[in-house]
Each structure stands twice: as C-alpha cells, then as structure tokens.
Amino acid sequence: MSDGTMHDLFVIGGGINGCGIARDAAGRGYSVALAEMNDFASGTSSASTKLIHGGLRYLEHYEFRLVREALMEREILWTMAPHIIWPMRFVLPFQKGGVRPAWLVRLGLFLYDHLGGRKLLPATRTLDLKRDPAGRPLKPIFRKAFEYSDGWVDDARLVVLNARDAAERGAFILNRAQVLSARREGKGWRIETRDAQGRVSTHQARMLVNAAGPWVDQVLAGVLARNDVRNVRLVQGSHIVVRRKFADPRAYFFQNPDGRIMFAIPYEDDFTLIGTTDRDFTGDPRKIAITGEEVDYLCRAASEYFADPVRPEDIVWSYSGVRPLFDDGASKAQEATRDYVLKLDGSEGEPPLLNVFGGKLTTYRRLAEHALEKIGEAIGAKGPAWTAGARLPGGDFPVEGAGGEVKALRGRFPFLSQRHAERLVRCYGSDAAKMLHAARDASDLGRHFGGTLYEAEVLWLVEREWAVTAQDILWRRTKQGLFLSQDEVAALESYLEGVVGRLQAV
Ligand SMILES: Cc1cc2nc3c(=O)[nH]c(=O)nc-3n(C[C@H](O)[C@H](O)[C@H](O)COP(=O)(O)OP(=O)(O)OC[C@H]3O[C@@H](n4cnc5c(N)ncnc54)[C@H](O)[C@@H]3O)c2cc1C
C-alpha cells in the first residue's frame, strides 16, 4: 500500500522534536508526513520533569548558549499555550557549608534573571524561611532561600498539541506506524512503515528527518543500515510521585550532597513530584523502569530537606525516561551537554537526511526553526519562521487568563465542579467548551469512568488526539490514572476496544 504522494519531508518520531518540526514545516507550506511507532510522547517526551526552564544548573557547565536560548523561550512558549504552560516559582533553600556557597548561587540567579527574555516573570528574591510559608514543610536548619522563576509544562500534551496543529495545517500524521526501512531511490526516499495491524505501507519523500530521540542511533543502524551509530549517550532519569508533601503552590529546588540537584513540585492537586536521577543507560529504552537504587536515592535526598521524611511506601506512581544526549565525551552522565546538534547528511544530488541529536522540551520550537533552516538549505526554503507568535490548539486566551476561562466554563456548564473545570481548562484550554458541546448536566457527558473522566472526553481524545489505549488516555493525554482504581481502568480498556476501531476508521 502506498500513500501515493511525494512528500517534501518524512519525519521519523512523534516526540516533541518530531512533532515540533512537522508543525513548523507544515505551517511553511511543505508537504509533511510523520510516523510514530507507538503513541505520541510515549518515549522521552512524557517522562520529563515537566519544566520550561533555562536550566540553572547548566550555567555550572558554561552552557550559556543553551541557557540563554531556553530562558528566551520561557515566555514565548507560555504565550503559545497558556493552558498547558504556566509560570512557577522555585524555592532554593541554602545553609552555611552547603554544596555551593550562597554567593555563587546568587550569581547564577542574577545571570538567570538577566541573560534575556524575562518580561513578565518576576525576578529572584531572598526568603526568610522562618517567616515565609515555604519554610514550613522543611527542616528548621534551612533558614534562608532564594526564590526564582521558571515554568511548568504538561509535556505529553505539548507533543500531541503540536501533532494536532501539524495535522490541521495539512501534515499526514501516522500514529502506531513504525518506520521499518528508508532507502534513497532516485530523487527521493522510499520509506516503509508497519501499522498496529501489521499492514506495511510505502511512502515517498524528498527529505528524511530522523527525530527518533533515544532511538536515533537505532534508526540509523536498523532503518537506514548505517554504521555511524554512536551519536547519543542515553542517560536515565526517574521520578516518584507521593501524596502532597506541602500545600504551597511553589516548587522546591534541592541541592544534594553529591552535587546533583532535584525538584519537588506540586503535582495534579493532590501530589508532589520528586526527581530526577541521572545515570547512564545501556538497555532497551522501551523497557526502562525506575530501579530500587533510584527510589532509595530520591527518598533519601528529599528527606534531607523535608521535616516529614519521604518513604518508599509513600510512592503512588513513578516513571522513568532516557535523555538522548549528544555524546560529547563527558565523563559523568550529569555533565554531558544538554544542547542539541542537527546533522545534515547526503552528498550533492542525493536526497538529504537530517539527524536530530539531543534537545529539551524548552528549546523544541527553536530546534524546529534551526531544523527548518537546514531543510531550506537542502531542498529549498519555503515561508518565514512563524511559530513564535502562533497559539497551539486551545491556547487562544491571554497568558494570565486561565482563571477567567475556568469561570466562563463553569458559567456555561454549571454542573462542573471547580476542580473538574480547572482540569479541563488546563488540558484543553478554549477547546474544553467544544468538547462539552451542548451538555446540560453531567449525564450528558456520558459514562463516568472514575476521577473526573467522562465518555465525552474519552471520545474527544479518540477522535481528535489519536488515543487508542487506556494508557494513552490515563497517563499521557490526562493524568487521570492517578485517580482511577484498577477496576475502573479495566472498564475503560474494554470500552475502548469497542469504540477505537469504529471511530478512528471514519
Ligand atoms: C528524566 C528527564 C527529565 C527531563 N526534564 C526536562 C525538563 O524538565 N524540561 C525540558 O525542557 N526537558 C527535559 N527533558 C528533556 C526532554 O524530555 C527531551 O529532550 C525530549 O523529550 C526529547 O524528545 P524527542 O522528540 O527527541 O524524543 P522522544 O520523545 O523519545 O521521541 C522519539 C520518538 O520516536 C519514536 N520512534 C523511534 N523509532 C521509531 C521508528 N523506527 N518509527 C517510528 N517512530 C519511532 C519513539 O517511539 C518516540 O516516541 C528531560 C528528559 C528526561 C529523560
């Protein structure tokens, strides 16, 4: 089976980088196809710490280019998607004789505030933890802290909204389609994919983009039959989620005695997210899972700060991902560069290939712009850069307007609880009202699956966001997995078996 079109670009990988490049390219008028072998964001892009941040720690490694670009992106991304991205203040406690002297941290934060791009986010300030509520959950030895700005993002939704926007701009998006092979044939690439039903299709494109994240080298070796396959260093990072450790809306930035840093972040109303670790990884990225050693490390490190210790039995959920870092030969995992590298491949007259190594969620939009510069050089430029001011689906309201959106949604659908309305606005923004359509009471939302998840939302996700399994819905499109019992998950699974094929075939 062939899709019959000679696309300009074929993108391998539906993580943030693949979807970001596909969206940017489609918006410039290129004909684009993208294949994701599993679900969107099922790789690294749903396993992050979920911060839109400059990366204070990277200043220690003199990564000024990356930090400046990332700092500049914070407010641009917030404006593009104020439903899934919002500012967060971080409390960084310090003590005499701590890991880094206070003056050094202050200097880092001064640079952070002034390197560029900060117009709306408040600057750093010093806190007296004896008086400030941020001191309450901490051990009394912490008397002072710095408080600075960064941002929060729903990572998996950022990916799917880029995929949606790419599709709305004409991209041909294939989920659950693994790229099996890609060969240069005449003036283009001949690409073979296999879908979830085992059907093999062929596609043609003038240029190929390898944005397979942790699989980028596997794609080079397996799909492209190449030998240059040691470009990325895989570094595992794990997180734990525990019942809420503090009520304050601010997050904490902790420095561990081994020089690493970690975050404790308010999460999904009732929880605290703690992470991350940094260890070299050599296995299959698909099978990654938190290790006992990482659990102990995270609990021990957080308990150095919180008065009430974090115990392994407090963990309600954990997740793990691998950073596909460009291998710059650094000796320690946490020292490997977080910057991205784009490499164009192919000699004169040959159909080009662009490989994407590394990258962060925060810099995905700039990475895509840089990729489009290379694509323009290789196959001819089309259209100017356009994504900086363009809203993602549902994000067409003022940056500080989420509260107003919640109020308006409850005004129109008064049967929604405050919590339910807030969640819908935080997931779907202005699309929430479209999803609820003409509902007059909760029964119009259809079957209730648990938590605040109803049939209307499930159908929206299947029809508009390529959701297929309960995992897609409970752990990527939403985090309702934290609130459903095992029986409720099983009921959702059997419901989906009945509807997915029917709806997605339409
Ligand atoms: C623990 C951790 C914490 C992080 N925290 C942050 C943070 O707070 N802020 C931040 O900005 N960044 C953070 N990052 C970095 C960020 O998450 C990653 O850089 C980013 O998600 C990488 O995206 P990607 O698209 O390159 O890879 P992925 O998201 O892994 O996407 C690659 C996709 O390619 C698909 N694929 C592979 N092979 C094929 C094939 N043959 N055919 C079809 N599809 C294929 C895979 O299924 C996968 O979905 C963190 C990373 C980790 C691991």
Automatic annotation (TrEMBL):
Superkingdom assignment: Bacteria
Enzyme class: oxidoreductase
One GO term of the biological process aspect: glycerol-3-phosphate catabolic process
Ranges where the FAD dependent oxidoreductase domain occurs: 8-342
A GO CC term attached to the entry: glycerol-3-phosphate dehydrogenase (FAD) complex
EC number, UniProt record: 1.1.5.3
Needed cofactors: FAD
Family under the similarity heading: Belongs to the FAD-dependent glycerol-3-phosphate dehydrogenase family.
The protein's name: Glycerol-3-phosphate dehydrogenase
Species assigned in the record: Xaviernesmea oryzae
